[in-house]
Amino acid sequence: MVTPIQVTLGELNLPLLAPMLIAIFGGLGILIIDLIKSNLHKSLYVMLSLMIFGADLFSVLGAAQGRGFFDLMLFDGLSIVSQILILIASMLFIPLALTSKRFHEFSYPEFFALFVFMVAGLQFMVTTDNLILIFVGIETSSLALYALIAMHNRYHSFEAAIKYFTMGAVAAGFYAMGSAAIYATTGSVELWQISEALSLSTENSNALLITGGAVLILVAFAFKLSLFPFHTWAPDVYEGASAPLAGYMSIVPKVAAFAVALRIFSIYIDLGIDSIQTIILILSVVTMTLANIMALVQEDVKRMLAYSSISHAGFVMAAIAIGTTKASTAIFVYYALFMFTNLGAFTMLWISRHKVKAFSDRFDHPYEKFAGMIKIVPMGAVVMALFMLSLAGVPPFSVFWGKLYIMSSAIDAGYIKLAIIMGLNSAIAAYYYLKLIVYMFLREPVKSVDIIYYNISKPLMVVVGIAVFVTVGSVFFFDKILTFVYTMMSASGF
Amino acid sequence: MSNILTILVFFPALAGLLGFVIDKNSARVYGVAIAAVEFILSLFLWMNFDSLNPTFQFIEHFPIVKDFGISYYLGVDGISLFLVIMTTFMTLIGMMSMTIKEDLKNMVITLLFLEMTMVGVFLALDAIMFYFFWELSLVPMLYIIGAWGGPLRVYASIKFFLYTFVGSLIMLVGMLFVAYSFYSAAGVWSFAITDWYALGFDMKYQFWLFLAFFVGFAIKVPMFPFHTWLPYAHGQAPTIGSVILAAVLLKMGTYGFVRFSLPMFPDASIMMIAPIAILSIIMIVYTAMVAYAQEDMKQVIAYSSVSHMGIVMLGIFAMNSEGISGSVFQMLSHGIVSGALFMLVGVIYDRTHTKYMSEFGGLASIMPKYALIFGIMLMASVGLPLTIGFVGEFLVLIGFYKISPILTVLAGTSIIVGAVYMLSLFKRSFFGAITNEANRKLKDLNANELVSFIPLVAIVIWLGIYPKPVLSIIDNSVKTTLSIMEQKAITPEAKEIIIAKNSKEEK
Predict the structure, then answer these.
(1) Residue A287: domain span
(2) Closest residue on chain A to B132 (Cα)
(3) Is residue A237 part of a domain?
(4) Is residue A2 in a domain?
(5) Do the Cβ atoms of B285 and B417 come closer than 8 Å?
(6) pLDDT of amino acid B505
(7) pTM (2 d.p.)
């Protein structure tokens, strides 16, 4: 006999859903507009998407924290911070469609609709503590993303999309198995209930199943976050995707995945289950080191940036293992700062993307392409150099502050060796970032001018300008970001 | 003028930014003018400096990242005052004597940015700010060596960058640990060095922290096993790069020891006297011998500069006011003398496009003014009495004699070896018959070059004869540092060494 469910609208707390609803209805709106009148210019859709994300961001900032929708949704500080990052990065990404040359994926309104749906999926993912809804969020966003990658009409793009899809499917499988194992031991898919059940049954005979479930989920996230040894897809996928989308993928899905990983694994770490913590630490150290070493030998700047963002993800992953509020804050502060720099660097690649001519048969953006850039486009070279120095962690540029804060949180928690490893890794990384600077500043140009700043347009310059502003000026508002994120994280108990 | 330090630090950078607008052909004059204004500002700082006050002056302090204790904190004391003046002076002289033709505008702008970072390192009293300038100084130097250097320039510049970068990241870990210890003890975050001075550590922590900072500073100095980047950097760098590198950048490392290591980790410093003294002696004697074996004039001076930095290190770890004041003075004298020597080699290189001693001989009869100035600088480098080089070396040796007479005698021999390689360089290049007929047409120093060199000669002789105005101010601040060490020292041996070695002079 099932008791009828009594629901009032007030209990549902629908305003919590407002941000996602704005995105979903906005996406539908884009499709409807296309139905009514087709062949509209991409600039219309860009502006519509920007407005959708603007309204979305506005409602996130205005939303009250709490639970809602049958307790499925959890709108806490973590969710707010990660949604803000996701939305700002999306708003930076969208104008990159307005290139001076026409790339065909942007002429489809579906591209923008899918993009908006993907963002909605990511928002769902970070705004719940229900394992099933997390799964739905991951899948919604990933399916949209596969399609977005494939729409960049190049041979490598299809390869990339298929690769990403296959890997994503495997990861989803692991995630489902992990959730099932956790459900089997704790009888719930709600993280707060799982946490309670686990804390009551620490000497439970199901210890293997409990850690096993967590390890399976960790594998799933290792795919998403491109952690060793599940990182191999990343360089190929980034190379195949268009440069802005690659930059976007190196940030936004990872922010969402970090938010969820933090939710899930902090339970284990707070309960003192050392095996999980050790596994995460080892993954993180191996990821940052190996990716750095691989990045050293890359010939293509885009692949180098792919490995570098794997390494950065490994760097940040350590913060989850550390498990203090400061470390959790560091994750998002790091990504908030890294976001602008990395997206800026990928935008510079996008600017140099030639529509028909690839630079060489194998690579689109080999180092030689940027040789002598200071002599051809001095401002471009200086801007790119700024991004590289920032990624290398040279003060006072943005990523340095993130690194500083993560290393500091490692030291506070007593992980001195980890901090030293992080330091040494930053030094290794400096080499491949410098390599690009050396090519740009100290070598003679090899190819004609038009390849380098082929794709430039006003909107792209604005995006790069914002990225430069944040990268250089971060010292002035690091304080504000830090305080905001810290309050949010400590309010939601991470 | 309460914000003179901010002006001193950021004026060159601001001028550098504006420099992008200046026309190519006027860039050099612009650079010289800015460097001159900066130098006058630093002299103005000296005039207003209260020489009786041994603590930090002209302090500017306000928070940047409040929750994390990072603040904007500038201040100057007797130790940093003259390093700043030396920096602005050498930048000015370097700018005046610069002979680079291509991309001159880029060079001028780069130098102005470099000047900001150098002055900033000496004036920053917040560890993160210090680190910021410290790291940022690598970038312009990378560009200077990489863009205007010799055939191996890219290799040399990357080696220079990575070496220092590795060291300083380990130092950063150390800094973060100190900041955390401060937080644990005081309940608030702070990266202010003056706050850190009040913090005591267990012996175990002191040792590891000392090592972390040591790696950062020792690579920059460069101490003996870490010195291999320097000959490459000097060998490939253009003249102006070598001048700035030898005169200022190396001093950052030794300054770091005086500012951070000694007052923060007194017991560990005293424990490390023996190993560091041995490394310094190896550095002094070994590099002096290597210098003797060089054919390239510039390499001789590069290695001699490592050798002299060994003397500076020895003085710092003498742990008494003669030794440390002598070291600081030696930093100044080495900055001026080695800078001048690199410039002199640059002069002959511009004329003949070679730096090999075998290509020269009998230059004294062709270029008498050049030979005279070279001779004076060389004597100062060797440490002849009544030149600036003598004062520092002598004080260091006196200071270290109290620690270990035997090591001091060993170090003293370096002065002799130093004299050998320098005099042999002088003999082979300047005396004897003219071996290379092409050299007969060489022109002596022109007016422009004389204007650059005469102030250097004047300072070398003035401070050699009468070092008191400089030395007394340095000494005041050094004594304050020593008294901080004495208060903080926890092991009885350390206290004893600091007190015993300093009581004698009070008589």
Answers:
(1) 13-491
(2) A395
(3) yes
(4) no
(5) yes
(6) 47
(7) 0.91
